Amino acid sequence: MEPARTTVINISLPERLLHLADQRAQVESRTRSDLFREAVRRYLGLTTVVSAQPGSSHPADANVSASAGFDFDHNPTWRIFRIMAEFIDGYEFLATFNKTVTFFGSSRMSPNDPHYELASELAGLVTQAGFTVITGGGPGVMEAANKGARNAGGESVGLNIQLPTEQRINPYVTKSIGFNYFFARKVMMNISAWAYVFFPGGFGTLDEFFELITLAQTDKIERHVPIILVGKDFWLPLCGWLRQYVLSRGAIDEADLDLWTVVDSADEALALIRTSKPRDRRIYQ
Description:
By secondary structure, this protein is an alpha/beta fold.
């Protein structure tokens, strides 16, 4: 019995593949993500990659028809390339913006909520101060921040997530990019901002907050980058819990509680953002 034949991709070749993608970019109007995938295909001489098992319905030859496409759902090798392509697109997209401030908060927040109005007000002030507002591109707090930035005449950037049946993006975004993977999107929202602003939110907002303070605590991002929590009524109980139950058990240090600042007004938040400095590192160490 013949052994199964598998086409193996050497994933240590991104530079060679990107070179091919850049060559195509000179003559075609497509995203680098698409060009990168095309470069992979051209380099391999394949349309997709399959493992041809003896007795299976797969063709013995690893080349299959173009209609099969890239099997991102079932072939982990192709999934790696898709992830790489999203990071490439994300880095190149963000490179066009300077002095960015990332806004986080609940996607479920109603326009009638006082924090919605506060997020819109702050985003407008941040824009007028010469910063670029970045959000997750969705509804709620993200919509409020994008609305404030656009109404102030600035760029209103959304890094949105592609869902199976829709691409959830609010109408106030002026420039956007979509991501298939939440983790790739999260990295892009974190890597280069001059400040991070958190409004009340749910699990997603808390996840993003704890990841950022962990990155600052472990010196993966600079500690001088302001992490601002807006809304004392929402955030102070959490801060009290961290002091009473986490600090008291020695799980964190006293200095770790200084990684963020809690404010109650747009003016307070703006004052902190104005003190922010250029990032020394645009990617995690």
